[in-house]
Amino acid sequence: MPLRPSTICLGTILALSVLLAGVLLKGSLPGEQGGPDLQQKRALVRALELTDLCLFTEASYTRHLSMSDLSTPFQDSPASLEHFPTGALAAPPDLLVKRYAETD
């Protein structure tokens, strides 16, 4: 007797949910603090004086979130729409938002 497509779909969702729960549980358990590999990376970051993690590669205000201001996405025109999809994913840093809120 063949399985119905809905049974396959629900089984897949259940299996992926169990896998996600396992990953989240593994991440929340105390464990190694990275070992020697992480220590080497920390030393490299210190030696090269790297600042921020580059999460997105599209626009300067999404590449370096701590170095942008709230008006940068609208530098072409105050009424222009967001050019890049990552602008919707990455909010400006809290410190920047608070600073601009205080000046209003």
How would you describe the overall organization of this protein?
This protein is an all-alpha fold and 104 residues long. It has a domain at 50-104. Helices cover 54% and strands 0% of the residues. It has five helices and no strands. It has helices at residues 5-28, 35-48, 60-63, 86-89, 94-103. The longest helix has 24 residues, at 5-28. It is flat, with a radius of gyration of 22 Å. The N and C termini lie far apart (68 Å). The model has no long low-confidence stretch (mean pLDDT 77).
Main sheet characteristics:
none
- Give the distance, in angstroms, between the N- and C-terminal Cα atoms: 68 Å
Assembly status: single chain
Q: Strand fraction band? A: under 5%
Keywords:
104 residues, mainly alpha, 5 helices, 54% helix, 0% strand
Describe this structure in a few short sentences.
This protein has five helices and no strands. With 104 residues, it is an all-alpha fold. The protein has a domain at 50-104.
Layout of strands and helices, then pairs:
Elements (H helix, E strand, L loop, with lengths): L4 H24 L6 H14 L11 H4 L22 H4 L4 H10 L1
